[in-house]
Amino acid sequence: MTPYPPTHRYRLYVDESGDHTYKRMNDPSHRYLALLGVWFRHHDQYVDFADDLETFKRRIFGPRPDEPVTLHRSDIINRRGPFGVLCDEAVRAAFDRGLLGVIRRAQFRMVCVVIDKQDHQNRYVMPFHPYHYCLAAMLDRYCGWLAWKNMVGDVMAESRGGSEDLQLKEAYRRVYESGTLMVRREVHQRALTSKDLKMQPKHANIAGLQLADVLAHPVKQAFLLQRERIDDPGEVFGKKLAREAWGKLNRNERTGRVKGYGLVWLPTK
C-alpha cells in the first residue's frame, strides 16, 4: 500500500459529557451521555490550532513552561487551580472572548453522538455499553468521511484509568476488526491507520483533547435543546461556545445534511 502523505492524515480527538451508568435516569445530566469528537488534518490545521491555543493561554495565564494550563471544563467553571484568576471579571471576559476566537479560527470537523440511556435500557434486555455504542457510531461517521475524501486517520481519547481504558481499547479494536451494523470492517480498516486507540491523560496538555473537553457539554446541551429534551437555560456562555462550533459539524457533502452525520441520536428509530 502506498503511504499517504502528511496532508492526507487526520486525527480524531474524543471526550464525553455525562456518564455511562444506568443510574438517576430522571436527571437529564445522567440520562443523556454525549460523545464528542473533533478531527483535524495533522500536517497544518492541527499545528495552527495548537499554536493558537497556547498563545491564548499564555496571554491569560502568563508563561508556565513547567506547569502548563490544561483546559478542563469543570476546573474552569469552579475556578479551580490556575482558573482562579477568572474570579476577576475583566480576566474572565478576556478569557471568554479569547476562547471563542480560538474556536472560530480553528479548522476542524465535529461529531456529537448522544444516547438516551433510558430509552436504550428499555429497548434491550442486555443493552450495549453506552460509551462503546457511541464510540462505534462516531467511528462510522469519521471513517465514512475519511473514505469519501480518500484520507486516513487515527483516534485519540482521554485516558480514564485502569479497566475503563482497557475496555475502551477493546471496543475500538472490535470496530476495527469486525466493523459495525452500519459500516463494513473494510471501510474502517482502510480509513484507520492503527488498530489501536491512542490514549493520553488530561495533564498531557493535548490541544485536541482540550477542545473536545470544552465543547462536549455545550454542544450536547444545544442538541438536547434542539430536540426539546431540556429546558432553555437562557443566554449562558455554553450557548456561545456551541454556536461558534456549530458550523463545523460534520455534514453530508452533497446535501449539507447534519442530522445523522454531525448530530447523531441513539438509539436510532
Features:
269 residues; Nucleotidyltransferase, domain 5; six-stranded mixed β-sheet; 10 helices; 15% strand
Characterize the biggest β-sheet: 6 strands, mixed
Number of strands: 6
Poorly predicted runs are none
Task: Assign the structural class, choosing from mainly alpha, mainly beta, alpha/beta, alpha+beta, or little secondary structure.
Answer: alpha/beta
Q: In what order do the strands lie side by side in the largest sheet?
A: 5-4-1-2-3-6
Mean pLDDT: 93
CATH class: Alpha Beta
Query: What global shape is seen?
Result: globular
**Beta-strand proportion:** 15-25%
Fraction of residues in H or I helices: 40-55%
Could you tell me the CATH topology label.
Nucleotidyltransferase, domain 5
**Termini distance?**
39 Å
CA-based gyration radius? 18 Å
Report the order of strands and helices. Answer: EHEHHHEHHEHHEHHE
Please give a structural write-up.
Helix 2 packs antiparallel against helix 4 (89-105). The protein contains 10 helices and 6 strands; from the N terminus they run E-H-E-H-H-H-E-H-H-E-H-H-E-H-H-E. It has a single domain, classed as Nucleotidyltransferase, domain 5 (2-Layer Sandwich). The model has no long low-confidence stretch (mean pLDDT 93). Helix content is 46%, strand content 15%. It has 269 residues and is of the alpha/beta class.
Present the secondary structure layout:
Layout: E1 9-17, H1 28-31, E2 32-41, H2 45-61, H3 73-78, H4 89-105, E3 109-116, H5 117-123, H6 130-149, E4 152-158, H7 162-178, H8 185-191, E5 198-200, H9 207-226, H10 237-246, E6 263-266
Parallel strand pairs: 1-4, 3-6, 4-5
Antiparallel strand pairs: 1-2, 2-3
